[in-house]
Every structure is written in structure tokens, then in C-alpha cells.
Design a protein that fits this description.
By secondary structure, the protein is an alpha/beta fold. It has one domain: Rossmann fold (3-Layer(aba) Sandwich), CATH 3.40.50. It is about 40% helix and about 20% strand. The chain has eight helices and seven strands; from the N terminus they run αααβαβαβαβαβαββ. Helix 4 links the parallel strand 1 and strand 2. The protein binds S-adenosylmethionine. S-adenosylmethionine binds next to helix 4 and strand 2.
């Protein structure tokens, strides 16, 4: 599956002109490529720097993430948070959780991260807002459920970022369960008067949604 909508050389150029990532994040990419079946799920350096920047711009003290994988996006966002910030992240995969925990323990930002293990829809019932920022990046058929559960937990002006909303371009003519689910959510957000919204063609598409 291709997750980049821009030419690889342009992506590499954009990465080279953006803030460099830490050695720890570079090592996390190596470990994820070596020890997981789907390293393509990593948000990677460009989107990771974008997430950090969004955490900084929103002055985020509380962030909610749905879909942690091996912790790359969580550590990237945590870098942009103050020392007393809290990032709650949800995942259910034991292999990914074990890798993430090891890297959180070695990162100066790991203490900001609280990991909720299990199906995210169950974890969400136990989580209380308000949040300044949220990042939705888990199973696509549940995207609308996640959006509707997360929106009430956002503070006014809070920012929800939703990943893979272009789904390698397949949202234009949805032809599988995932692309249909994402297209349905995109249509819902496009008409949602509760939010300001802009869909960015960054990497595989990121919806920026601000609660009014
Ligand atoms: C695309 S990856 C997340 C990538 C991550 N944000 C990053 O930057 O590395 C999606 C993650 O969602 C998790 N996931 C899938 N279904 C889930 C569910 N129902 N509840 C919680 N996590 C789920 C998977 O285990 C996987 O780690």
C-alpha cells in the first residue's frame, strides 16, 4: 500500500529541511522495521514533526491518541508538550505495546505518556476530557465512532487530527471497507457545523478539525 501522495524525492527534501528527529526516534524506526509486520503504519519523520508542531501551536497540555502502534507519533507529540503535559494513548497489540514501553522508558518525554491497553472504544469509556488535541490513527472502520466519541471531550478550540483520510487516493472512488469508512467520515466532517475543518494532503492525508 502506498501511503505517500507526493513523490519520494520531494518527501525526502521536505524531511531534510524540517527539524531533525532524535536518535531515539531513528532507532524506534529501525526496531519497528525489524520487529513488526507492518512498519508502513509509522507516521514517520515528516508527519511526526508536524504533530510535534501542532502540539506546540495548540499549547497542548492534554492530548488523546487513538492508535499508538510502536509509539512514534506519541513520542513526537510528547516532545511538543510541557513537562507536566499528559498524553493518553490507546492500542491493543501486545508486540507494539512492548516496543513502545521500552522506548518511553528511555525518552525524556516518556513520563508524559499514559498507555491504555485494549480496544480503544472500551478505553474511551473510561477517559475524561477536556483535551487540547487528539490524533486518530487506528482501525478505519471505527473512524466515525472515534470521531463522535472524541469530539465531546475536546475543549472549545481544541484540535482533532485524523490520519490517512485520503487513503492512498482511494477515497475518491471508495472500493474497500477502509476507504468507504474514511470517505463516510470525510463527508460527515465536511458538513459538520460543530467544527472548522481543512483536509491537508500531507503524507496519506490529515484532516485538521477544530472544535467551535
Ligand atoms: C496506523 S497504526 C498507528 C500508527 C502510530 N500512530 C504511529 O505513528 O506509529 C494503527 C494502530 O491502531 C491499533 N488498533 C487497531 N485497532 C484498534 C482498536 N480497536 N483499539 C485500539 N487500537 C487499535 C493497531 O494495533 C495499530 O498499532
Amino acid at each position: 500500500m502506498k501511503l505517500m501522495l507526493v513523490a519520494p524525492e520531494l518527501d525526502a527534501y521536505a524531511v531534510s529541511k524540517s527539524e531533525p528527529t532524535s536518535d531515539l526516534l531513528k532507532e524506534l524506526v529501525e526496531v519497528t522495521e525489524r520487529d513488526t509486520a507492518m512498519p508502513i503504519m509509522l507516521t514517520g519523520p515528516l508527519e511526526g514533526r508536524f504533530l510535534k508542531m501542532m502540539a506546540q501551536l495548540t499549547n497542548a497540555k492534554r492530548i488523546l491518541e487513538i492508535g499508538m502502534f510502536t509509539g512514534y507519533s506519541a513520542l513526537s507529540m510528547a516532545e511538543g508538550m510541557p513537562d507536566d503535559g499528559e498524553l493518553i494513548t490507546c492500542d491493543l497489540d501486545p508486540t507494539c505495546i512492548a516496543i513502545a514501553r521500552k522506548f518511553y522508558a528511555r525518552s525524556p518525554h516518556g513520563k508524559k505518556i499514559v498507555l491504555m491497553e485494549g480496544p480503544a472504544l472500551e478505553s474511551l469509556k473510561k477517559i475524561k476530557g477536556p483535551f487540547d488535541m487528539a490524533f486518530i490513527d487506528a482501525d478505519k472502520p471505527n473512524y466515525t465512532n472515534y470521531y463522535e466519541a472524541v469530539l465531546p471531550m475536546m475543549r472549545q478550540g481544541g484540535l482533532i487530527l485524523i490520519d490517512n483520510v485520503l487513503y492512498s487516493g482511494r477515497v475518491v472512488a471508495p472500493d474497500c471497507e477502509n476507504s468507504k469508512a474514511i470517505a463516510e467520515l470525510n463527508d460527515r466532517i465536511a458538513k459538520d457545523e460543530r467544527v472548522d475543518r481543512v483536509l491537508l494532503p500531507l503524507r496519506d492525508g490529515v484532516f485538521m478539525v477544530r472544535k467551535r
